[in-house]
């Protein structure tokens, strides 16, 4: 009886030890984003986290900190490099000049996708990232890249289909590309964080803001907008990055799981989610009383002439720094 009791105790002890080892091996990835909780990025990251948990048997999970809880947009990349987060969503335009190659994918009127589909653009940029974009993301592992459908103007108090009406207006922007676009239209660019755009429009701090349709819902732009202008002009580019140190400390099996569930396929799936959100965003704006207006062919030609110098200048600047800007843009838009 004593031997049986000792054997049972030993079995329990072994089970406890195994459980402790399994618990010690469990990993929770801390994910930082600056967008609202219901934004497409957070929905995709939550879906990714559920997939990781299921395929790892609970060994790898995620915890998402949305809405800039861990830091504002310009700090997201450094949060990952410093260990403040394991994964973050990086808006390249939030730190002008830091990601010059990546930002070329958002240049005005250069989308490679018919219909400006984010699914196609995001996949293509992710496929090109290892060759062209790894150096400017040093210290991190690029999980996937994302390109918004081209952003459009949502404005208050004037009809934007007449480009002359932009003269003297104040427009919320993010990133050096949009700053130059707005200046080329005779307006004044005003840096306003995304979450504060609607309030800034309501108070008259700015006369308009630039977002894709999808983002108008979480940022609640319908009540403060009178018009939305089509077509979209330029895209914003993002990267979802993981700390290289975090990736390196994972077991080979969990590293393989990260690789399996990210990359071009994930980028395309995320882009498709964003594309679907565009239709919902447009419906939200129109139901909110916003009039969607479209540039005439003549006005599009005028716009293209206004922004052509921006495209040439930015590509030339990147080439001038010894980086393959022209080659990258050609590969992206082919």
What would you note in describing this structure?
The chain is an alpha/beta fold and 334 residues long. It folds into 2 domains: 29-149 and 236-278, D-Maltodextrin-Binding Protein, domain 2; 152-234 and 281-322, Bacterial extracellular solute-binding protein, family 7 (D-Maltodextrin-Binding Protein, domain 2), CATH 3.40.190. Helix content is 47%, strand content 17%. The chain contains 13 helices and 11 strands. The strands form 2 sheets. A 6-stranded mixed β-sheet has the order 7-6-8-5-9-11, sandwiched between helices. Strand 6, helix 6 (176-184) and strand 7 form a beta-alpha-beta unit. Helix 5 packs antiparallel against helix 11 (264-287).
Short description:
The chain has 334 residues and is of the alpha/beta class.
Taking all residues together, what is the mean pLDDT? 90
Number of helices, counting only DSSP H or I runs of 4 residues or more: 13
The tally of beta strands, per DSSP, is 11
Order of strands across the widest beta sheet?
7-6-8-5-9-11
Strand content: 15-25%
**CATH fold descriptor of the largest domain:** D-Maltodextrin-Binding Protein, domain 2
CATH architecture of the largest domain: 3-Layer(aba) Sandwich
Task: Tell me the distance between the termini.
Answer: 78 Å
Question: What is the radius of gyration computed over CA atoms, rounded to a whole number of angstroms?
Answer: 23 Å
Helix content: 40-55%
CATH class of the largest domain: Alpha Beta
Tell me about the largest β-sheet.
6 strands, mixed
Low-confidence stretches: 1-24
Question: Could you state the CATH homologous superfamily of the largest domain?
Answer: Bacterial extracellular solute-binding protein, family 7
Pattern of helices and strands: HEHEHEHHEEEHEHEHEEHHHEHH
3D shape:
globular
